[in-house]
Amino acid sequence: MTNSINEVLETDLMFIIGSNTTENHPVIANKMRQGKKKGAKIIVADPRKIDLANIADLYLQIRPGTNIALINAMMNEIIKEKLYDETFIQERTTDFERFVRHVKDFTVENVAPICGVKAEDIRRAARMYAEAGKAAIYYAMGITQHISGSQAVMVLSNLAMLCGNIGKEGTGVNPLRGQNNVQGSCDMGALPDDLPGYQKVYSQKVREKFERAWGAKLSAEPGKTLAEIIHGGGSGETKFLYIMGENPMMTDPDLKNVKTDLQKVDFLVVQDIFLTETAELADVVLPASSFAEKDGTFTNTERRIQRVRKAIEPVGNSKPDWQILMELMNLLGFEQKYHPEEIMAEIASLTPEYAGITYDKLEETGVQWPCYAKDHSGTKFLHRDKFDRGKAVFVAVDNISSAEMVDEEYPFIMTTGRILFQYHSMTMTGRVDELNKRAPDSFIEINNKTAEQLGINDGDEVRVTSRRGSIITTAKVTDKIDEGVLFVPFHYANAKVNYLTNPQVDPLAKIPELKVAAVRIEKLLDNEK
Predict the structure, then answer these.
(1) Residue 169 belongs to a domain
(2) What total of structural domains would you count in the chain?
(3) What is the pLDDT of residues 299-311, one digit of tens each?
(4) Average per-residue pLDDT in the chain?
(5) 127 DSSP assignment
(6) Is the Cα dihedral 389, 391, 392, 395 positive or negative?
(7) pLDDT for res 529
(8) Is residue 366 part of a domain?
(9) Can you give the residue range of the structural domain that contains 454?
């Protein structure tokens, strides 16, 4: 996030797009409700009528995959009505005139039919955002899990810059991370072309710094993305695979091929706290400890580095992740002993954004990076006076259609997501009786009119089929979803929706298009049950 969670309480307008915040980030959603009570306005744009849509000042029930078209149309309207922040644009951005020429064809009249919403509602959204004193954008995987995900983030950045809503409190472009330490993992170099602190592997100066610290020669070649690594098993390129705290046999698209790819890897190691669906395919399983059994840090979605303190000793033969990795290094001939506080000290010595971080400093509330020195208190929001690159660039982005469109054989758009009472692949929540009582089984949401046309009643068993496979689940007839659109949570092993999802990826970030798949749905006959 460019800004902080508590700044939700200071904003004048929240634009929530592609985020089911109440169910996926309930603490932040509660802050949003508090902000609403303080007088902030809310715009929600999402294919499902999420809970926050019920208190929104404007709800846009857009079709899956039309985020870019919507934002371009809003910006077209803001420019046409001269509601943009001319001073911010002149002082802090470039390429504005070229950008204006690009969005001139994205009129609300042209875009409304694409998005499936009223032209006047797009106009209203544009005015509300532009006229707010401080407006903040909040998004999640409903933006990124498309083949156009990278471009959609760029378009949201354009919108924030257009109205000067970045670099000040209560504004910003704020991605809500999907898991508790996704931000920290990225910060530590868990990206193909990054070393810790987003320092690029292809920079000789960067490599030399880490080579001196680690006493090893580093490659200048970027690594591979998750999808490339997994599919490398099927092609024979990935020989050995070490998976930590990830369950691709539930969470990756096109699971039939994922299973084949994993089975073809010469040697598969899985390190996890439970025997997951992926661990069942492993040659070796290393039992890891949970958060309560280890020391360390997490870095959350607002860039806040927080201490994790061991509450109990590791259960059974399990060990903390850092200890397992240290012992493996020792066995492989790199004799070095360390503990979590020393790990943080090394991070601080090599990562500028973490340079001022120590365990003592994290004792109370945690610190938001960048924190450049021991006497630096951290950074509440980014880009206060300038962007790291100097002036920010307006990027012209065209509307990009989803990889799969509906047709006569597959006439419905299926999208996926999470629900409140289960989490991710249910590795943890699936073992909690009370949660399973509240949300025990898979379901598919289907619009009332669509269900009536198909002769499907609430509670009927149905078969859902895409070009990649089929699942059987239970129909949940509702008005939360629009006609022609279906929603399935991806948590459930008894109906693995990712057998149906599309493995096509965003060419830049290589994120799969999990949010749009063309499917058909049919009621099960009595003899099929």
Answers:
(1) yes
(2) 2
(3) 999 999 999 999 9
(4) 95
(5) H
(6) negative
(7) 67
(8) no
(9) 412-528
